[in-house]
Design a protein that fits this description.
The structure is a homodimer.
Chain A lengths: L2 H11 L3 E5 L16 H13 L5 E4 L1 H5 L2 H18 L4 E8 L3 H14 L4 E4 L5 H4 L9 E7 L5 H4 L10 H9 L8 E5 L6 H8 L5 E3 L9 H8 L6 E5 L1 H4 L7 H20 L4
Helix pairs in contact in A: 2-4, 2-12
């Protein structure tokens, strides 16, 4: 999916919500455990209920890998289900990969060729040749970690170098030597508040993937105030607050209601630019 | 496996070689393609031929994931095969994971509980709470990226901060607030030469996992000269130079011969400390 198509979806649905599919066998409703593939059954119901209110899905690879081979089957089925039934949805493989060139090439092959997913999250620590193998696919995106939502983001990402540049700023600037706002986005945590102003000085037009609204405590208003561009420029993710909003047989319905609430808040935020 | 057991294996075998199982369906001998599981068939033959000469195996997850579900099956079978037949071998899941706490917890569950692997490589960009979930398992190890073997290592890892500390040095120092040399090792590329001296100033006793000898051009002599400790303190990995040394039906035999050559060079290097 290219940038223009993504912007069109946001305008059409008045939403920039991404639903995070952090599906944990220990957290899904009990009655699903009798299903042949409980993880996929859960995802399918969540997707059907939330699709009208979101523009993206983000399966988190860790949750599928923790189930071994079975988990990979659930992951692949989930991706296929979205692609077949909701082809307008942007899919993010939240994998945080990144390795030497020939290895990153293999990861790119997995996510972009084998699974035909729109985007993959990548960690920047290993530098240019760990990222560029992901950039050679037309219509596919790297979503590079810049300033993450967790407490540990302070450990290294905020370190200031001798030029007065913080590490996350260097990541934003340097990576623009390899990529542009048509094939790269950045992860910026919703918990970072006014830091979005600093991000926008360096990446005024890039889309930002923003986790941390919901369970992690970030504020949608603040993210929009400091981070929104004339094209929106934001994909805001919520995982736990939506998918685990209810544990009864009504779980999917309630997830849909929660997604709708977030979508309505987003429509309000979008009213100034649409 | 704890540190003392690892040191004992190194002394016993006069080797600190790790064989990297970067098994690529496009590179394995053609006659294996008729096998029901060509990746596992290749690994099994390579393991049987090289086990006398190495103390560790490092399957690179990217190569298995690129095959989807089939790849995960091959990966799990490989790990089981090593654990059953060569329980003295140290297993490294080269995955370069790292995410917010609850996600890293899931990765730790996968590698340490489900698969009972000894260690996993982790990227430090997201800081403390992305690493600590891996540290709660007795006898298991985090192998944290410090100074990698690739060209892109210069992009961020060598950035000097206002305190005069380079990023990889900060990673080495900071991470010792969370872990010690009994549950953490560091990745340092063999291509980094004299930089091992700087590493040893901050991490004098930690084991280092050293990729980049062989296909990537690093020198074993230099690594040992600047990086070896009284307990060896090194696990040197070679992947392509060993496993793809020959493409005929003799591939495993030749891989064994190559591993033996490296082991003999290692025995020489170890003679000063054993």
């Amino acid at each position: 999916m290219n940038k223009q198509q993504l912007i069109e979806q946001i305008k059409l649905k008045k939403s920039f919500l991404c639903v995070g599919l952090d599906t944990d066998i220990k957290k899904i409703p009990e009655h699903l455990l009798n299903d042949e593939d409980p993880i996929f059954a859960f995802n399918k119901a969540i997707i059907d209920a939330t699709a009208p209110y979101c523009i993206a899905y983000k399966p988190n690879l860790a949750f599928y890998e923790s189930m071994g081979v079975k988990g990979w089957i659930s992951f692949e089925k989930t991706v296929e289900y979205i692609k077949k039934n909701y082809p307008e949805q942007f899919i993010i493989a939240d994998a945080k990969r990144g390795d030497i060139g020939n290895t990153s090439q293999m990861y790119a092959r997995t996510f972009f060729e084998e699974l035909d997913i729109d985007s993959v999250t990548v960690a920047p620590y290993m530098g240019e040749d760990s990222v560029t193998p992901f950039l050679t696919y037309e219509g596919k995106w790297v979503i590079l970690l810049a300033l993450t939502s967790n407490k540990g983001s302070h450990d290294f990402q905020l370190t200031t170098d001798t030029e007065g540049e913080r590490l996350f700023e260097k990541v934003l600037r340097k990576s623009q030597e390899w990529a542009n706002d048509e094939n790269m986005m950045y992860v910026v945590g919703a918990t970072q508040g006014r830091m979005f102003e600093d991000i926008r000085k360096i990446a005024p037009n890039h889309f930002l993937l923003v986790p941390g609204v919901g369970a992690q405590g970030g504020s949608l208003e603040e993210v929009c105030k400091y981070g929104m561009t004339k094209d929106c420029g934001l994909i805001v993710n919520s995982s736990r607050a939506i998918i685990y909003a209810d544990k009864s047989e009504r779980f999917a319905e309630v997830a849909g209601e929660e997604a709708k609430k977030v979508q309505e808040q987003m429509a309000e935020q979008l009213s100034s630019i649409l």
